[in-house]
Each structure stands twice: as C-alpha cells, then as structure tokens.
C-alpha cells in the first residue's frame, strides 16, 4: 500500500491565515474526547491476531475510564483516546501519525488555523517494531512521547534517534542474550538460525549471533523469512533445514512469518528438531495447534498458559495486555506530575515543566515498579516456557524457568567513557570507575583500559568516541580576521591618500623641506607594511608561509631605513645652518639613497638565505591545544626569524636615539620631535609584542603579530605625516617660503655663539618686514 501524504495548503486571504486539507485524514476506529488525548496504534485483520489487539484496545479504554473515575490522580481532568488500525503496515502507521501532527480529525472543518497544534499528548503502541520506528521518528520531532507495550527491537533504545520513546516491555537486546545463554545451558553448540526480514528479526538475531559467538556457539546457517516472500523462497529455506546437520534451530521471528514456514515444514514432514523461539511466536496460541505440535514439539521460549480456546476471552495470558495498562498509567502519572508542576505543587523537575517525556519515569503503580533506564527501557524479566502436549491432546506452555537480571554486585558496571580501577585491599569485583583521561576513550562497559585517541582526534564529551578535532587558523570569515583586514586596508588607503596629498603639494616648502624623496619612499613602504599583514590571514600554505615573515622583514626594514635617513637629514640640516658648516655634503641625496638601499639589501640577503636553507612551511600543531588542530607556519629556522626581527629592532633603536638627541630643536616643522614620538610608539609596540606573541595560544599568536604590524605602521604614519597634512590642508599660511625662512633664521640664531646679542636685531628686522 502506497503512503498517501496529507498536504496542508496555506492561504493568505483575510487577516488570519488558514490551512486546507488536500486529502482525507485517517479517522480513528474508536475515540473519546477529553482534556488530554492518548492514541493507541494497533494492528488487526491479519489471521487471528485481531483478538489479541482488540484486547489491547479494550485494556486501554478500561484503564482510561478507571483513571477518569479516580480522584487521587488527575482530579477534574478527563482523559480521551483515539484508536487507529494500521494493519501492521508502516505507511499506514506514518499516515495516521501525520494526521495527528496536523491536528486533522473527524470533527475538523474544511479549513483550520495553521497555528493550531496537535491535541495529542502521548501515543501508546505500536505492537510491532517497524511501524513503531516510523511513528517514533516522526512524532519525536514534536516531543510527543511514544510508549510501546510490544515493540522490542533493540534499535529503539537509541536515544539520539528516538529521544521520546519508552516501552513497558524489555528490549530484545536482553532476550537475545538470554536465548544465547539458554542454548549454551543445554549444550547446543551447533545451531541454525531463522529470522523475520524486518527490524524485529534482523536486530534481534544480530544480537543473538554476537552473544552466541561469545558463548562459544557456532552458527551453521542463517535464513530469512517474510510473509510476502514467494513460496519458492520458503521452499529454499526448508531445503536448507533438511540438508543441515544441526538439530537445534533458533527462530527470532514474528508468528505470522512462522505460520508460512510451518505449512511447508508440515507438507514435507520435517520433524525431530529442537526449536528455540522468541516471545513473538513461541507463546502465540494460534501457532500452538495440535497439528503444528508435530513440528514444534518441545519448543522452548515466554509464560504459563492455561487451556482456553477463545483467544479474545483468554485472561490467563495478560503479560502483554498488562503492559498496555502500565503504559496508560505511566502517561497518567506523568500528566499528573506535570499539572502539579504548573500549579507550583507536587514533584516538579526544574527547568523542564513543559516536557512530558521527562515526567515518564520512576513511579509506582499497583505495586509494579516501572523504572525506565536512560534508554527508556524497563528491567528485563522473562519466563522460560516449553511446549508440552497434555493427556487431552492439547498443547500447554509449561513454565520451566525464569530469567531475570538481579543485581548483587560489589560495584556497579563502569559505563563507556570510564575504566575500572581496583580498590586496594578489595577483591577484583570491587572497583572504582574512573573517567578516562583527557584525549582517551573507552567504548565498552567495564573497560579495564582507556584507549588514547589518534593525534588528530579528540575524545567527545562522553569520552566514548574519538572525533576529529576542529581546525583552527586566523580566517577571513571570522570577526577578528575581518576587523584586522579592515584596519589593514584602511591603513593602506590612508597611506595612499597622504601620498596623493604630498604629490599634489610637492612644490610647497613643507614637502620640499622634509625631503620629499624619502617621504614618498616611506609612504610606499608603509603601504606595503599594511598590505603584508594580509598574508598572515587565511589558511597557511607553502607560499603564504614563505611570504609572511620575509615580506614583513623587508618592508619594515625599508620603512625604518627611510625614517632613519630622515632623522639623519634633520640633524645634518640644523648643523648646516651654522656658519661655515659643510655637513650636508657628507649626507646628500645620493648618500641617503645608498643608506636606504644598503640597509634593505642586507635584510633581503638574510631572507633569501633563510628561504633557501630553511624556509617556513605550513604545519599542524596538535600539541599546544588538545581540543583543536592549529594550522600555523613553522619558522623553519628560529635563528633566522630572530635575526630578521633583531635587525629591525636595531635600526629602530638607532633611529629612536638619533631622533631623541634632536628633540629640542625649534618647534616649527620639527621633524625630529615627530620622529621621536613615532619611534617611541613603534618600539613600545614591538617590545610588548614579544611576551604577547610567546604567550598567545593558537590563532591568537598570528593575530598578535598582525596587530603589532598594524599598530606600529599606524604609529609611523600618523605621527610623522598627519601633522604635515594638517598644515598643508588646514594651515596653508604656514606652508610658505617666507615662514620657512623665518624658521631657518631662528634655528641659525639659536645655534650661534652669541644668541642674545643677535636677538634685538632679529626682532627689529621681523618688525620691519
């Protein structure tokens, strides 16, 4: 049967948007209104199973009516129900669940508000595992709890996939292990297996085979059956059974599939085999017929049943039926606690008042303690039953044992993520559970040792799985990277703007007086300094690593060489104003160019040797931070890096000392004072850079270096050039030859042998002008 999907069409006509059903929603077979609605999914119309499923439906109705008549639980609140028949098909189960999620029902109008939420508060069922998986997957997205009374697939214990699933029947994980231990107990070490081709059979048999191997049991064959298979496939399975040498068969299948297999086994009169079965078929009364006894004689598998011919009125086997009853009361108690929380009374779970699944745990009902574990499963308890024919020729299910897992331990089992540590002076069964160390995991229960994760992996929060470490580097996409990029481009733009201003006013005195050639070269080098910081941002590559430090080293030496040249020119210029001085001839334009070229070539040569001998390269740092992999550039040669950095520092100190010596020269156009202040900023930045660089972790190491580059570049640009731009653009009267000559005369007078005797003449001349 194909799955038909209910589509809700949104209309925007009018103020209130409404939704229209484009299909006929599933109508429940039985329903009753109430303040809270419980839903039962069951299967029928298949052989005689409808009797048992009708019994489940009647049990739910009985439990709800009983609760509605009580005053100690949910007073003044009524429970309602909707009961759907899914015919044991996954599509019909999902279709009904989707109708419930949309709020569609038998009494709904043709249009309804799109904001209307489902009135369903819990779902009981399904009886089969595969439909339950479909339902739980869908409604789990809406935090609606699903409590099954008969779905036993171990896969439903996965809390990540089914966060709101609970059940009042044990998981097949325990039944499969119990069957393996039962087979081992009787010494049957050579067996065949048969399973249903669905979630119930495949999951259950997988667990059985794993447990059987641990018990030393060998599997001769493993056959798959399903009720819709062709007769040829069933005959093939029968042929495998006939030709096999093993005489014990473990069948993990639903009874409908087993009925088809029984017919073929009867036709070929295959008898004399020992059958071990799961609870789905081994205690099914419609399978336990006198005719089938020839095949399943002595079968071992669930619970003491008396002889009642009518399956519907049979009240002796109420194990599963009672699971329905417990599921209804589980929801009722959870709702009771939830309403008490909202009324600020009763047991209230902090910060989880509106979450019904959290309330579905740890309550006592009619003396039967229902204790869901972290996977939503109850404790595992089983009756061991044996098919026996009584004196009247009727099959009885005789209880021959009981399988339980009582706890009598010195120490609880250590969960994954921990390891066992023996207590000193205690027997080996007494131990502590110690969390695995950082970077180590254990993915099994009662692990003796924790396993260290590979270098590029880290342990997850639970320490039961190794996951790939996050990769960290200073990225263009993160906020810090973008901020640094903005400042780098802003600096380059500002340097270009100052260059344009200087070029436009290149014939003015202030530009000429400040050595325009060195000024333009300095502005060009500052632009490169701002742009070279961009090479530090982004994922490190072979080329970016080689370019980072070398570009930084060369451009900064070019920059400092220009500043050093300007400083020397300032000192020489003021010495040259003294009578008879011939200093400027010693440091003219040619000497200035040669000094800048020499300083820069020396740094360039150092960088070339560095790149040839031990070039920087990208690497993965997995030791600095245990949680992330840091992509960074290894220096290749730490010595070369510090030589490059030290050379920049040496030139900076020389420049600062010379500028400091000239700081008291006259204030007008005082280049030395601005250079002194700019080098003070420059040196301060790089002095604080070293400890910050060493102590910063991961990508912040790169960010600190980029910040130092930008801060020192801005310091030079703003301190040296902004005062000049201020005069050029806002005080043009000071940018004149006349003003400059007064400045030079003042400088000459201050440095003359008799400044006081020349003072009167200078003032008189200034007045005449």
TrEMBL record:
<keyword id="KW-0472">Membrane</keyword>
<feature type="transmembrane region" description="Helical">
    <location>
        <begin position="674"/>
        <end position="694"/>
    </location>
</feature>
<feature type="transmembrane region" description="Helical">
    <location>
        <begin position="639"/>
        <end position="662"/>
    </location>
</feature>
<comment type="similarity">
    <text>Belongs to the G-protein coupled receptor 3 family.</text>
</comment>
<keyword id="KW-0675">Receptor</keyword>
<dbReference type="InterPro" id="IPR017979">
    <property type="entry name" value="GPCR_3_CS"/>
</dbReference>
<feature type="transmembrane region" description="Helical">
    <location>
        <begin position="483"/>
        <end position="505"/>
    </location>
</feature>
<keyword id="KW-0297">G-protein coupled receptor</keyword>
<dbReference type="InterPro" id="IPR001828">
    <property type="entry name" value="ANF_lig-bd_rcpt"/>
</dbReference>
<dbReference type="GO" id="GO:0004930">
    <property type="term" value="F:G protein-coupled receptor activity"/>
</dbReference>
<dbReference type="InterPro" id="IPR028082">
    <property type="entry name" value="Peripla_BP_I"/>
</dbReference>
<feature type="domain" description="G-protein coupled receptors family 3 profile">
    <location>
        <begin position="480"/>
        <end position="744"/>
    </location>
</feature>
<dbReference type="InterPro" id="IPR011500">
    <property type="entry name" value="GPCR_3_9-Cys_dom"/>
</dbReference>
<keyword id="KW-0807">Transducer</keyword>
<keyword id="KW-0732">Signal</keyword>
<dbReference type="Pfam" id="PF01094">
    <property type="entry name" value="ANF_receptor"/>
</dbReference>
<protein>
    <recommendedName>
        <fullName>G-protein coupled receptors family 3 profile domain-containing protein</fullName>
    </recommendedName>
</protein>
<dbReference type="InterPro" id="IPR000068">
    <property type="entry name" value="GPCR_3_Ca_sens_rcpt-rel"/>
</dbReference>
<keyword id="KW-1003">Cell membrane</keyword>
<keyword id="KW-0812">Transmembrane</keyword>
<keyword id="KW-1133">Transmembrane helix</keyword>
<feature type="transmembrane region" description="Helical">
    <location>
        <begin position="594"/>
        <end position="612"/>
    </location>
</feature>
<feature type="transmembrane region" description="Helical">
    <location>
        <begin position="706"/>
        <end position="729"/>
    </location>
</feature>
<dbReference type="InterPro" id="IPR004073">
    <property type="entry name" value="GPCR_3_vmron_rcpt_2"/>
</dbReference>
<dbReference type="Pfam" id="PF07562">
    <property type="entry name" value="NCD3G"/>
</dbReference>
<dbReference type="InterPro" id="IPR038550">
    <property type="entry name" value="GPCR_3_9-Cys_sf"/>
</dbReference>
<feature type="transmembrane region" description="Helical">
    <location>
        <begin position="550"/>
        <end position="574"/>
    </location>
</feature>
<feature type="transmembrane region" description="Helical">
    <location>
        <begin position="517"/>
        <end position="538"/>
    </location>
</feature>
<dbReference type="GO" id="GO:0005886">
    <property type="term" value="C:plasma membrane"/>
</dbReference>
<dbReference type="InterPro" id="IPR000337">
    <property type="entry name" value="GPCR_3"/>
</dbReference>
<keyword id="KW-0325">Glycoprotein</keyword>
<dbReference type="Pfam" id="PF00003">
    <property type="entry name" value="7tm_3"/>
</dbReference>
<dbReference type="InterPro" id="IPR017978">
    <property type="entry name" value="GPCR_3_C"/>
</dbReference>
């Amino acid at each position: 049967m194909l799955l038909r999907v209910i589509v809700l069409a949104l209309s925007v006509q009018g103020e209130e948007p409404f939704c229209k059903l484009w299909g006929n929603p599933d109508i429940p077979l039985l329903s009753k209104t109430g303040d809270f609605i419980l839903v039962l999914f069951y299967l029928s119309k298949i052989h005689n199973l409808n009797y048992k499923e009708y019994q489940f439906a009647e049990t739910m109705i009985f439990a709800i009516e009983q609760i509605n008549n009580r005053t100690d639980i949910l007073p003044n609140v009524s429970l309602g129900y909707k009961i759907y028949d899914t015919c044991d098909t996954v599509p019909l189960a999902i279709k009904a669940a989707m109708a419930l999620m949309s709020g569609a029902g038998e009494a709904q109008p043709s249009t309804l508000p799109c904001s209307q939420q489902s009135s369903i508060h819990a779902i009981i069922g399904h009886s089969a595992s595969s439909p339950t998986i479909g339902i739980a997957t869908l409604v789990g997205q809406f935090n609606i709890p699903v409590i099954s009374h008969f779905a036993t697939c171990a896969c439903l214990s996965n809390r990540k996939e089914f966060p709101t699933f609970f059940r009042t029947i044990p998981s097949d994980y325990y039944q499969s292990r119990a069957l393996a231990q039962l087979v081992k107990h009787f010494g049957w070490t050579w067996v065949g297996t048969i399973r249903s081709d669905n979630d119930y059979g495949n999951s259950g048999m997988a667990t059985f085979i794993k447990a059987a191997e641990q018990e030393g049991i060998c599997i001769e064959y493993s056959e798959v059956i399903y009720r819709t298979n062709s007769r040829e496939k069933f005959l093939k399975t029968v042929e495998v059974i006939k030709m096999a040498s093993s005489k014990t068969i473990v069948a993990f299948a639903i009874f409908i599939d087993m009925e088809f297999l029984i017919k073929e086994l009867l036709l070929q009169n295959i008898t004399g085999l020992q059958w071990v079965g799961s609870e789905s078929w081994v205690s099914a009364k419609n399978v336990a017929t006198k005719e089938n006894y020839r095949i399943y004689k002595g079968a071992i598998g669930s619970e003491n049943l008396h002889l009642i011919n009518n399956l519907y009125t049979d009240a002796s086997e109420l194990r599963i039926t009672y699971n329905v009853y417990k599921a209804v009361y589980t929801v009722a108690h959870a709702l009771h606690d939830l309403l008490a929380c909202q009324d600020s009374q009763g047991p209230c779970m902090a910060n989880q008042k509106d979450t019904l699944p959290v309330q579905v745990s740890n309550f006592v009902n009619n003396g039967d303690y229902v204790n869901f574990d972290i996977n939503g499963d109850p404790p595992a308890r089983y009756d061991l039953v044996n098919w026996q024919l009584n004196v009247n020729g009727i099959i009885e299910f005789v209880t021959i044992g009981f399988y339980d897992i009582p706890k009598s331990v010195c120490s609880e089992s250590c969960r994954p993520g921990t390891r066992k540590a023996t207590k000193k002076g205690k027997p080996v069964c007494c131990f502590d559970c110690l969390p695995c160390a950082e970077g180590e995991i254990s993915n099994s229960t009662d692990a003796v040792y924790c396993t260290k994760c590979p270098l590029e992996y880290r342990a997850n929060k639970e320490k039961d799985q190794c996951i790939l470490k996050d990769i960290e580097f200073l990225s263009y996409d993160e906020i810090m990277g973008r901020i640094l990029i903005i400042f780098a481009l802003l600096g380059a733009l500002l340097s270009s703007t100052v260059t344009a201003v200087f070029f436009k006013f290149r014939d003015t005195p202030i530009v000429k007086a400040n050595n325009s050639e060195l000024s333009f070269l300095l502005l060009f080098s500052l632009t490169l300094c701002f742009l070279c910081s961009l090479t530090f941002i982004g994922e490190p590559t072979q080329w970016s690593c080689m370019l980072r430090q070398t570009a930084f080293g060369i451009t900064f030496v070019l920059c400092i060489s220009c500043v050093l040249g300007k400083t020397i020119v300032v000192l020489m210029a003021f010495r040259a104003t003294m009578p008879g001085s011939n200093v400027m001839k010693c440091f003219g334009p040619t000497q200035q160019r040669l000094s800048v070229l020499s300083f820069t070539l020396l740094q360039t040569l150092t960088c070339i040797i560095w790149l040839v001998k031990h070039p920087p390269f990208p690497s993965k740092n997995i030791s600095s931070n245990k949680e992330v992999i840091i992509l960074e550039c290894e220096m290749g040669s730490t010595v070369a890096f510090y030589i490059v950095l030290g050379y920049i520092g040496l030139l900076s100190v020389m420049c600062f000392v010379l500028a400091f010596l000239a700081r008291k020269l006259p204030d007008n156009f005082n280049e030395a004072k601005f250079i002194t202040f700019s080098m003070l900023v420059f040196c301060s930045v790089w002095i604080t850079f070293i400890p910050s660089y060493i102590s910063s972790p991961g990508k912040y190491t790169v960010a600190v270096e980029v910040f130092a580059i930008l801060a020192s570049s801005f310091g030079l640009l703003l301190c040296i050039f902004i005062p000049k731009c201020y005069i050029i653009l806002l005080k043009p009267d000071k940018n004149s030859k006349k003003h400059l000559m007064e400045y030079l005369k003042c400088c000459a007078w201050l440095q003359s042998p008799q400044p006081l005797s020349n003072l009167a003449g200078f003032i008189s001349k200034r007045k005449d002008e």
